[in-house]
Design brief:
This protein has about 300 residues and is an alpha/beta fold. A seven-stranded parallel β-sheet has the order 3-15-14-9-8-7-6. A four-stranded antiparallel β-sheet has the order 4-5-13-10, with no helix packed on it. Helix 3 packs parallel to helix 4 and helix 6 packs across helix 8. The longest helix is centred in the C-terminal third of the chain and has 15 residues.
């Protein structure tokens, strides 16, 4: 076994690095060798085609990072099955679609169709998106709704399911336990933080949707805390997501309890960031004489009086 290989339940990855949903597209294959990644996760797919929110949909922040409100722009499930999946099937890297939907019924229907495809290795559930039948509250903000959604999907597919938890909750540990009880295999921790930025000269919000999701290096300490809390509350493998810009950032998430790491904003800064971060993890392991990356997962040493 290579020193970078990780196992997340039934999912075996050649290394722990993968893109965060929404930050990776087919055009990225022109810049990096996708076969060097641990997994491929494209932008969230919906049942029907969606145009997304009106522009402007992205703005940068002074603290580093960006706010976005794309609105889950999607070509729809039919296009995804006919075009997107065959394209990624040409690579040896495990393929993990991310699914978003407006209702539990729609989540279940899309997951059932994707779960029947041999090219699909696991499915990430974007439960941070709004539940239109519940006044727009995100599925992942309510433990009972999270449980029901994961439980319904569990009944229609056998492949690993990965709820992507929202950081915008009072207790992420409670949501994690609900997903685990419902049959989740892996947890992604977490998604973007709800934020808002204003142009002081025009006095208007910088993005048309007023509020959006904040990502980038400034949120790393917040995500480290979330990963640590979920690792303490659940026995499921964790994919850490949020604020990782360097190999040391990725190692920090893994010491907190993540078995793998998603890269998002860093890829907008440098399309080769995922490969660089993987190489920097290897350098860290050599520096500390670590032969197997499993040694650092959850390896933070916390002094408890």
């Amino acid at each position: 076994m290579s020193g970078l290989e990780v196992t997340l339940g039934k999912l075996h990855l050649k290394n722990p690095i993968m893109p965060a949903s929404g930050t990776f597209a087919e055009q990225m294959t022109n810049y990096i060798d996708v076969n060097q990644l641990g997994a491929i996760i494209p932008k969230s797919i919906t049942k029907h085609r969606r145009t997304g929110n009106p522009t402007p949909r992205i703005c940068e922040t002074k603290a580093g990072g960006m706010i976005n409100s794309i609105g889950i722009q999607s070509e729809g499930l039919t296009y995804f099955k006919e075009k997107t999946i065959p394209f990624y099937a040409s690579f040896s890297t495990p393929f993990i679609p991310s699914v978003s939907a407006d209702s539990i019924e729609e989540f279940t229907e899309v997951c059932e169709e994707l779960g029947e495809m041999d090219e699909v290795d696991a499915i990430e559930l974007n439960i941070s998106c709004p539940n239109l039948k519940n006044n727009g509250v995100a599925f992942g903000m309510d433990p009972s709704v999270s449980y029901e959604l994961v439980n319904r999907v569990r009944k229609v597919i056998k492949k690993p399911i990965i709820p992507k938890l929202s950081p915008n909750v009072t207790s992420i540990a409670e949501i994690a336990r609900a997903c685990e009880a419902a049959g989740a295999d892996i947890l992604t921790v977490s998604n973007t933080f709800i934020a808002m930025s204003i142009d002081v000269h025009t006095r208007k919000p910088k993005i048309s949707n007023v509020m959006g999701g904040y990502s980038g290096p400034a949120i790393l300490p917040l995500v480290v805390r979330l990963v640590y809390q979920v690792h303490q509350a659940s026995s499921l493998p964790i994919i850490g997501c949020g604020g990782v810009m360097t190999g040391e950032d990725a190692v920090e998430l893994m010491l907190a309890g993540a078995s793998a790491v998603q890269i998002g904003t860093a890829s907008f800064v440098d399309p080769e960031a995922m490969i660089t971060i993987r190489e920097e993890i290897e350098e860290y392991m050599k520096l500390h004489g670590i032969k197997d990356i499993q040694e650092i997962i959850g390896g933070v040493m916390v002094h408890k009086p």
